[in-house]
Design brief:
Rossmann fold, alpha/beta, about 325 residues
Amino acid sequence: MGGDDMRQLRERRGENQTQFAEWLNAQLGRSYTKARISRWESGAERIPQQLVDFLTRHKADERPRSATYLAVANQKGGVGKTATAVNLAYALTEGGARVLLIDCDSQSNATVHVGIGNAAIVALEQQRKTLYYVLRSEEPLTSVIMPTAERGLDLAPAGLSLADADVELAADSTGGLILREKLDEVRHAYDFVVMDCAPNLGLVTANALSAAELVVVPVQTEALALLGVKRLVDTIGRIRRRVNPSLRIAGIIPTMYNDRLTQDRATLQELHESYADQVPVFAPIPRATVYGKAAAAGMITLAGDPKAPGAETFREVARQIRAYAQNRELPHVA
């Protein structure tokens, strides 16, 4: 194995040289640096035989990847959207898949949810290592991707700067398609890409929907919930007609459900009556304090409590998405 082979393997993993060094160190118990990786890839320094043997074995074990792109969207805030995105991303890794979670919300909720604190987000912004700089410059998506504490799950973080992107992208005639182009760089490095959209239908959300193959819609079981769902469905229909004919709704996930409340039961019934013949309406995620506590602690709920209320719903959604990825044809998708 030579320097070009190492570089190609690193790029297939969707990692920059620093991330690749960190992965090698974790695997081999070494302390390689970015500079060392650079010298090996350029041929300036010979690759140690132990490393050659390891990478050769790893290359032989590699299987081809072609990521499925998934957006989690609802223009209404407070519906459990980020909890859905991060727990679904985690559930998708449970089969050994590599998953990229992209935070498409300037509130940085998904970034915080996986353990990146506010001070770290400020530092990432100063280093131009958040999604905004990918959308508004020639920086590749790989330049901002970072590992999380969970095996197989990486993150493209967001910061407050992303709030400016909706206005700035409007001045670009192709401003709604930038993320789709950037995702091409990592398609073969991941099995799934999960995009946590902002609670609006601005141009950053449009970027995610223009890139996605599937949309999961979390809906809080409250009064008037279906009005927001209808608006989102209409938006998805327009994006399908204009720029992304392959976009489909993978299903609706009722959230924050309390079976003891009449309104919650009525809304759940209305969701089934209005949409169950078009798209899957999954079993509801109950209202449970474990989700809020996990978010506050910067943890993914399913990682800390695999049997949390609603965990089986996330796993069922993940199973259906895996089936779509295998066949590129998901039953009942509209």
